[in-house]
């Protein structure tokens, strides 16, 4: 599923943390490779950061106004489900 068309005004940043080699991060790596260009073109001002570190479980962190952060585990999630999980992270973290 694709990422949200309209984002909350309070959303400042989305950070994706993945391992470059672990099977648990494979779905997230695939999602980022296929969807990053469309996300950045639809939301050019959004900080959409991808951080790689060996051996960490895949997760996403959304940062909102006032420094509030919401985190969601993505380890073992398929590429198709990552967009839905990000959407729920953003909608529930407002």
UniProtKB/TrEMBL annotation:
Record's keyword annotation contains Zinc: no
Compartments reported by the entry: Mitochondrion inner membrane
Highest rank taxon of the organism: Eukaryota
Membrane-related topology note: Peripheral membrane protein
Transmembrane segments annotated in the record for this chain: none
Pfam family, one: L51_S25_CI-B8
Entry keyword annotation includes Calcium: no
UniProt xrefs under SUPFAM superfamilies: Thioredoxin-like (SSF52833)
Swiss-Prot/TrEMBL keywords: Electron transport, Membrane, Mitochondrion, Mitochondrion inner membrane, Respiratory chain, Transport
GO cellular component: mitochondrial inner membrane
Segments forming domain Ribosomal protein/NADH dehydrogenase: 20-93
InterPro entries in the cross-refs: NADH_Ub_cplx-1_asu_su-2, Ribosomal_mL43/mS25/NADH_DH, Thioredoxin-like_sf
Major localization class: mitochondrion
Reported function: Accessory subunit of the mitochondrial membrane respiratory chain NADH dehydrogenase (Complex I), that is believed not to be involved in catalysis. Complex I functions in the transfer of electrons from NADH to the respiratory chain. The immediate electron acceptor for the enzyme is believed to be ubiquinone.
Similarity field: Belongs to the complex I NDUFA2 subunit family.
Name of the molecule in the record: Thioredoxin-like protein
């Amino acid at each position: 599923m694709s990422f949200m068309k309209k984002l909350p005004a309070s959303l400042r940043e989305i950070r994706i943390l993945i391992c470059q080699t672990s099977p648990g991060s494979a779905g997230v790596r695939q999602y980022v490779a296929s969807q990053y260009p469309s996300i950045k073109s639809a939301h050019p001002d959004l900080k959409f950061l991808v951080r790689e570190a060996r051996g960490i479980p895949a997760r996403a962190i959304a940062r909102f106004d006032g420094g509030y952060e919401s985190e969601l585990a993505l380890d073992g999630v398929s590429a198709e489900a990552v967009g839905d999980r990000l959407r729920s992270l953003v909608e529930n973290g407002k």
